[in-house]
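User: Predict the structure for this protein chain, please.
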Amino acid sequence: MNLFEDYRQFVESTLNETGQIGIRYFRQEIDIAQKTDASPVTIADVDIEALIRARIMEAYPSHGILGEEQAALNPQAKFCWVVDPIDGTKSFISGMPLWGTLIALLKDAAPIFGIIDVPVLGERYVGTREQSTERNGEAIRTSGCGELRKCNMFSTSPDMFSETEFEVFNSLSSKARFRRYGGDCYSYAMLATGKIDAVVEAGLKPYDYLPIVPVVNGAGGVMTDWNGNPLTPTSDGRIIAAATPELHRALLEETIRLATSEA
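Assistant: Here is the predicted structure, written as structure tokens:
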């Protein structure tokens, strides 16, 4: 068994537990707190991250942990886990099923392994550097779309952009075949399966995007920041994910042109 398979078995076993927690709280009457950044948090977020952290510290005590709900633990370690217990908390508390648990493993600050787990739908997307991305054990592939005018483009919400960023996104997405809002992490899962061609977002945190990078890349896509740089824990949270290198190039060039004109 290789190292990636060890990590995969560990994470999938842990997610089998956390999925039960999420489903137990989903569409139930639960308290909703507000964090300092005004984003909501539930007991499901807290309990899921606590369990994942406990399992990591037990199995890999020398590894770091960067999570959404608790303070970072040794984040400068050579190997560091990144955890988003519920990506799409607003969807979760609204009864929408497109929320997921995200986990990545970084080596020297670069994501080498990532999972999008969508418990309500029973879907799990696994990406690594060494293998093609899989959904529930079957290989998946992005679409072959290579042109901006032919792509469908998604973003979770217009509220995630600053005023200037939204002007860029609005102009960029007007050149696409069509655009849609919503989806949270599930939009990236659908990009990996070839249903969505592009996702452009801003204001994301490392735990929002780092677990998704291996999933998108392993399915044939490309995912960078708005300047074309690889995504790391210190990226600015502005994301371009595309089905093909050609589409990514077109999106990047247009984004840079629009951002320059808005400056």
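The chain has a mean pLDDT of 95.
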